[in-house]
Structure formats: structure tokens, C-alpha cells
Amino acid sequence: MIHFKIKAEGEEEQRTLSGLYRLGVTSEEMLAMIHHKNLYYFIPQIITGLFMGAFCGYAINEFYGYGWQAAGYSLLFGLGLGVLQFVVVHHYSKRELLGFGIN
Questions:
Q1: Per-residue model confidence as pLDDT tens digits over 76-103
Q2: How far apart are CA 49 and CA 46, in angstroms?
Q3: How far apart are CA 67 and CA 71, in angstroms?
Q4: Which of 11, 25, 51, 95 has a CA positioned 20 to 30 A from the CA of residue 80?
Q5: What's the DSSP call for residue 25?
Q6: Minimal CA–CA distance to 70: which of 95, 78, 1?
Q7: Which residues are CB-neighbours of 20 under 8 A, at least 6 positions away?
């Protein structure tokens, strides 16, 4: 059931993008639209994961006496993972645009 829903959304988006392409929207503009769409899908997970990781790092390491230092390291590590996720989303957006047959 989920497979067919995802497939239908992909086909609908392909029709939308091909219509925009015929209207004169450049592939760079379409890539920016897809990139923003994908970021909006993943930003809540990035932010939630960052704060949950910092809280867990603080709570667990408070037991060992590190406290705020561990929370700071957790935030730095989470920010690093967030940047990595932004890079992955950018490459995924490019692949998605190429998958629609638009160069």
C-alpha cells in the first residue's frame, strides 16, 4: 500500500515538473524547488535528533560527572551529522531531478 502511494506521488511530481519545464523553468530552479522540499521533510528530524542527543548525552554523562561538557560534545557531534545530512539531501535532490528525466 505504501509502495503505491509513494509511486503515485512520484508520478504526480514528475508531471508537475515536466509541466514547469515546458513553461520555461530552468533545471537549476527545479533543483532548488526539490532541494527545499526535501529539506522540509528532513529538518524536523535533524532538529529533534540534535536536541534528543544533547539531552541524552547530558543525562547519561551527568552520572559520570561530565555534565554540560558532554552536552556540548553531543551538540557538536549532532551539528556535524546535520551538515552531513544536508549534503546527502542535496545529492539526493540532484538524483531525484535526474530520475525525472530533466537535465
A1: 887 888 888 888 888 888 887 777 766 6
A2: 5
A3: 7
A4: 95
A5: -
A6: 78
A7: 30
